[in-house]
Amino acid sequence: MPDDRFGRNIHYLRISLTDHCNLRCLYCMPEDQTFQPNSELMQDDEILTLLKVFTSLGFDKIRLTGGEPTIRANVVNLVREMANMPGVNSLSMTTNGVLLGKLAVPLKEAGLNRVNISLDTLDPQRFKTLTRWGKFEDVWQGIHAAEKAGLTPLKLNMVVVRGHNLSDVVTMSNLTYEHDWQIRFIEMMPFAGQTDFQTTLVVSDKEILEMVTTELGQPTLLNNGILDGEARLYRLPGALGTLGFISSVTNPFCAGCTRARLTSDGKLRLCLLKEKEVDLLTPLRAGASIEDLRTMILDGIWWKPWGHGLAQGEIATNRTMSQIGG
Ligand code: SAM
Ligand code: SF4
Question: Residues 301-323: pLDDT tens digits?
């Protein structure tokens, strides 16, 4: 498995299946976002070829994201091909859940292991405001369809935005009393497109934890504080599910980072919050050999940045979150 020059073992690949989306979340992209033409995006066979190269290097944990991965044409077949690929030990997806009502069962049958679903509020009106185009009921139905289909353990991602859904921290936490779900509070990160919004309305995990503690009592820290992926886990007294805190901005987890990203247009992105990328699609289309691609990936991984520079005011503004694949 490839190591970077800091000794981190990089074996987790997030693949953006498309930069397109059926929602327009305020914190992710402007409403008039323009998308890349299909010809510039990786085609199915290109994704599979690149994935084969990554797995040959030891990448074994794969997450599909976007944009919205479920709107990609042929997504179920693509998932089936990936799930059957030797070396893929874990295949998951991050989705807004809108289409899971109809896709949860086919995706599970195709070999998808589990999903993280984004949900920022339980209030239908606030949901509409935050996503611009979304209907709360669709996602709620999608969450239950995913659970029923066995795409579990289920994790719900909530980006907390001051002035929009701070009070929903409590209602979302309440879900863990009845459901064995992980509710994950994500600090809003800055990218291109919505940078001012993202930097001025961010809420720290510390503030969120204080709010939970004041309203619902002190949650217990789990696993001695060792991160589950990127989340620090807590459990409220008597709750079935857990609360996860993802402090990417105020308490980054770069030292334990094991991931790389493949953008929808085929660039290897070494850090979500740094602009450095290695183009893999152009060489692939130009006839690069598998060995050439392996070398490019290993070289890119070696030079993976240590961490992001948000604390120093450095913001990567060459792409929106949806283009990179969150
Ligand atoms: N469309 C899918 C979804 O919303 O789940 C997958 C892609 S989305 C970019 C992946 C995750 O990134 C979502 O949980 C979303 O809430 C989160 N996200 C988007 N913009 C963000 C930002 N500026 N800061 C932190 N998280 C963000
Ligand atoms: Fe689409 Fe996900 Fe971005 Fe919302 S967060 S606009 S659902 S890509």
Answer: 999 998 887 777 788 888 888 88
